[in-house]
Amino acid sequence: MSQIDIAEAKTKLQELLEIALNGEEVVITKDSHPVVKLVPVPDKPRRGFGCMKDLIWVADDFDEPLTEEFKEYME
């Protein structure tokens, strides 16, 4: 993990971004206290059609009328 003061970070932003993109954390400090950590944003796989197959299902009686026990919720 690299640490660099904010004043120096202003002049070396491109270099610091490259370091972070290569997997190393870069901590920017102000008055010797850490204030910001540069890390790459992880790639998330895009969800495609059918990605929830077998995880979501609809009950066979989904569109049947509700029973009497739910009558008070429908008023």
Written overview of the protein:
The protein is of the alpha+beta class and 75 residues long. It has 2 helices and 3 strands. The chain has helices at 6-11, 13-21, and strands at 2-5, 26-30, 33-38. Strand 2 (26-30) and strand 3 (33-38) form a beta hairpin. The termini are far apart.
The secondary-structure class comes to: alpha+beta
Instruction: Please state the average pLDDT score.
Output: 89
Rough outline: elongated
Largest sheet: 3 strands, mixed
The run of helices and strands is EHHEE
Strand line-up across the major sheet: 1-2-3
Proportion of residues in β-strands: 15-25%
N-to-C span: 61 Å
- The poorly predicted ranges are none
Number of strands: 3
Helicity, in percent? 10-25%
Q: Count of DSSP helices?
A: 2
**Rg to the nearest angstrom?**
26 Å
Oligomer: single chain
Features:
alpha+beta; about 80 residues; three-stranded mixed sheet; elongated
Task: Write a brief structural summary.
The chain is α+β, with helices and mostly antiparallel strands. Helix content is 20%, strand content 20%. The chain has a 3-stranded mixed beta sheet.
